[in-house]
Design goal:
By secondary structure, the protein is mostly helical. The protein has a two-stranded antiparallel sheet. A hairpin with a 4-residue loop joins strand 1 and strand 2. Helix 7 crosses helix 21 and helix 13 packs across helix 16.
């Protein structure tokens, strides 16, 4: 049923904003506790935001249905639920890998892990700025190993965290402003698929009548049929960790070796990825599969010919495959973003004309920010970040290159998620590695390397990204209709940032001084704490020149991507969308789930037509909801029972 004007005005009601903010706090604390204490399936690890899906499922199916049964007017309306989901979604991307679990390990690792053997006291610490890092060895030692009485020495933490808060606010508001600028182009002009919006949109849909307390989707048996598959498989794996007699189910299939074992085609079945891919256009799904296979063949050929190597100057997050392939993927991402901006050039001209001249013929009333505020906000955020990065020791040219590469990667990831529904991916490289490879640590110097190492807190391991959450959220609000006209939603997003980051970071601080951070997550407080400074140590001990071969391969990837985009634009018969090429080296076993969805969708269309394709949607929505729910359900169970490391791997994006 179309949203009424009265409901639209209530979309950003106080109760909707408070509901979203409450859900954000619950998710912030819950996912952080899970990462640090329960160590279960990651609720804040991947861009498909399973934590947000779990919380929203509980809100719509349990809380809102219960309120509706008691009194219909008590239940949140469709626009109000959409607003609440956007705030919960944003919160999901700020915790865990998004930011809060990364920041403390990075700003403390150089002190705690300094030993006479690694000589970080002479190689690393003299070049690190003091103002964004907590000082005092005792404060760091007690954080990692526990403090008597769990007392937090706030005098060591308040100012460094305040400086990081300024940077984080600038970063996340810049992401939001950029997505506001691009929304109309992606949503209304290009009409991207946004597969990850389909589930929350269906969950809040009232159908032909809004009088029933329970949403129609939850009355459809096909939803629960799809839901049961991952929920049952995941529960078997969870129970196996409690009772060894219960059989376990693994959805990893044996890899297929090629070229005498120099490479292997990975096979994995993910229920959620099958579900998302059902809503992806066939050409994009085919491109994701095809280019993964081609890159795997290339990797095998590189190994077969003896060309495979590692680029030592690049850090741990760029060592998963041959550097030539990494540089090619980065070149493809650059062209993807340039192409995206070129396609939207008419819209971008209109945005800047409205921002600078106030042209009344350009309507921006349907945005959560005016174009003037969005452009000004992005410029202000970038300026704040630039000054901040300059103050930590990066020369202005390095600041420009670092921020440019960062936002190229962020926009490319957001585009890939919005258009291709790629739930499980990470960028081929990251800004610090790209800068070091492209400029050379011999030019950057020790102080510059110190600044780049600190940037590991916000610019690497980008598995979950706030920009993608804002992109998906704005699409959801557009589909609901009229809600995004209420400018106070932007204030809600700011409130989520201001509440989520302190609560999640504060909880980690408390747990560290109470239990010892080294006893929390070994990934964060062992690996993440040391990766930045190993990266710095290698480049300070043995300064490297710029990698000219890296630039050659970056250019090669850019040329290939440009050619693929030209072919796709001029030849309608070309079956493989170029979106798959930039992420082909990081897509891994997920391609097989996309392939399964592509085969199913093609078969359904051929023999049942569009009507059957639409009728079967709830099954695939159930696959997504079931995989998210089984992870969240067992995190709650494990919290009650005290079980740890029950990650359900093989079924859930652990």
């Amino acid at each position: 049923m179309p949203t009424t004007k009265e409901e639209a005005r209530r979309g950003c009601s106080l109760r909707a904003l408070l509901t979203g903010l409450t859900g954000a706090v619950i998710l912030s604390l819950g996912s952080t506790w899970n990462d640090m204490m329960i160590k279960g399936s990651g609720l804040a690890t991947w861009n498909w935001t399973p934590g947000a899906i779990c919380v929203f499922f509980a809100l719509v199916f349990v809380v809102n249905t219960g309120l509706g049964w008691m009194r219909r007017s008590w239940a949140l309306t469709k626009p109000e639920l959409a607003v609440a989901y956007v705030l919960i979604l944003v919160a999901n991307t700020l915790t865990g890998r998004g930011f809060s679990s990364q920041i403390l390990p990075v700003i403390t690792g150089s002190t705690y892990y300094a030993t006479p053997e690694n000589d970080w006291g002479n190689i690393i610490q003299p070049y690190l700025p003091t103002w964004p890092l907590p000082q005092g060895r005792d404060a760091m030692w007690h954080f990692y190993e526990g403090s008597p009485g769990g007392v937090i020495p706030w005098d060591s933490w308040v100012w460094p965290l305040a400086w990081w808060g300024i940077f984080a606010l600038a970063l996340f508001l810049t992401m939001t402003c950029i997505m506001v600028i691009l929304r109309k182009q992606w949503v209304e002009y290009e009409r991207l698929a946004y597969p990850m919006v389909q589930l929350p949109l269906a969950m809040i849909d009232d159908g032909s009548s809004d009088t029933a307390a329970m949403k129609p989707l939850f009355k459809n048996w096909m939803l629960w049929a799809g839901f049961a598959i991952p929920f049952t498989l995941g529960s078997l794996n969870a129970l196996h960790n409690y009772f060894q007699v219960v059989p376990t189910v693994v959805t990893y299939l044996p890899a297929i070796p090629i070229l005498r074992g120099m490479a292997a085609i990975q096979l994995r079945i993910s229920a959620s990825m099958v579900g998302f891919s059902y809503f992806v256009p066939p050409s994009i799904a085919a491109g994701l599969c095809f280019f993964y296979l081609m890159t795997t063949v290339q990797r095998g050929m590189w190994g077969f010919m003896g060309w495979g190597s590692k680029e030592v100057a690049m850090g741990a997050y760029s060592q998963y495959t041959e550097p030539d392939i990494i540089h090619q993927a980065m070149g493809a991402m650059i062209v993807l973003v340039i192409g995206t901006l070129w396609i939207g050039r008419a819209h971008l001209k209109a945005v800047f004309r409205k921002a600078f001249t106030g042209d009344p013929s350009i309507d921006d009333s349907d945005e959560i920010l005016s174009y003037r505020m969005a452009v000004g906000g992005a410029a202000t955020g970038l300026s704040v970040m630039a000054v901040w990065l300059w103050r930590i020791g990066l020369a202005p040219p390095l600041v420009v290159l670092l921020l440019s590469s960062a936002f190229i990667i962020y926009i490319a990831i957001s585009r890939t998620v919005a258009q291709g529904g790629v739930a499980n991916m990470f960028p081929p490289t990251n800004p610090p590695d790209f800068v070091v490879s492209g400029i050379g640590s011999s030019v950057i110097g020790a102080k510059g390397m110190a600044g780049l190492s600190i940037c590991y807190a916000w610019s690497v391991d980008t598995l979950i990204l706030m920009m993608t959450a804002v992109a998906n959220g704005l699409k959801l609000l557009t589909e609901v209709g009229a809600v995004h006209r209420h400018r106070r939603l932007f204030g809600g997003i700011v409130a989520v940032i201001l509440v989520t980051l302190p609560t999640s970071i504060g909880l980690i601080l408390y747990l560290g001084y109470e239990h010892g951070a080294i006893n929390l997550s070994s990934f964060y407080f062992n690996n993440v704490s040391q990766y930045p400074f190993r990266f710095m140590q290698i480049n300070v001990d043995t300064p490297f020149a710029a990698s000219w071969i890296g630039w050659v391969h970056t250019a090669a990837g850019a040329v290939v991507m440009a050619a693929l985009m030209a072919v796709q634009h001029h030849y309608l018969w070309w079956p493989f969308h170029p979106l798959g090429y930039p992420v082909s080296c990081v897509f891994g076993g997920m391609w097989f789930s996309v392939f399964i969805a592509l085969v199913l969708k093609t078969t359904i269309l051929k023999y049942g037509g569009p009507l059957l394709l639409a009728r079967l949607r709830p099954i695939f929505l159930g696959l997504i909801l079931g995989e998210a729910s089984v992870g969240g359900f067992w995190v709650v169970v494990d919290a009650i029972t005290g079980m740890q490391s029950n990650t359900l791997r093989g079924v859930f994006f652990g």
